Amino acid sequence: MKKYIVGNWKMNHNLSNIEDFFSSLKIEGAQCETWVAPQAIHVPHLIERAKGTNLKIGVQNICEHEKGAFTGEISVTSALDIGATFCLVGHSERRSLYNEDDDLLNKKVHTALNSGMKVIFCVGEQLIERQNGMTNKVLKNQILEGLEGIKPNSFQDGQLLIAYEPVWAIGTGEVATPEQAQQAHAHIRAVLAVELRLETKEIPLLYGGSVKPANAEGLLSQKDIDGALVGGASLKGDDFTKLTNII
Ligand code: 13P
User: Fold this and answer.
1) 210-234 per-position pLDDT tens digit
2) Cβ neighbours of residue 48 under 8 Å, at least 6 residues apart?
3) Which sequence positions are flagged as catalytic?
4) pTM: predicted TM-score of the whole model, two decimal places
5) Do 181 and 165 form a contact (C-beta atoms < 8 A)?
6) Nearest residue CA, atom 1 of ligand 1?
């Protein structure tokens, strides 16, 4: 299975910061997939800027509809048209700040996969849910609801990825231990295989939540962790480069 370092830039970086990122990025020899999702408004610029590098560019969100009267939304077919290759669906900030529920996220996953766009479907428990011993149940529910109706063999290898991002670890500096992350990833693989009959060898599982070069080695060496979805540390080209050397 391929390995992945994926940057989620969220609503950060201007054009000048983007130049700084590229000036310290050294990924020519990287053995992993290297992806970045900038703000939507910067996607065409990033696609131009990344030409000649191994960096692939995606969007942080897509609309569940392909086209039409949906002011302010991002069409998956238009994103593909300009050269974006992947999208995030179900990031915890979309779930909590924009009230995106399982039903909507499921529609987005279907729309993206049907259009041939790669999807990183994000799941993760809140702190209170972990404290109450509900992590496995929450992850199972999010996967079963979000991926409902996705048929085995209905997508190509590597078209669907899952990111486990415990909400309490996102942007907090409090990273999951390698054991906590491995346990959650093993559980996700089991749910995909047993409940959905999806061939899990073809579904990369990424960990996200306060990943940085200083803590990545323990996480990325776990058996069921195929890469990282990185927020803050992906904004700097040298940290991004270091992560690609660790994996
Ligand atoms: P941080 O790496 O900043 O914690 O963000 C993680 C994240 O939300 C990636 O999608």
Assistant:
1) 999 999 999 999 999 999 999 999 9
2) none
3) 91, 165
4) 0.97
5) no
6) 231
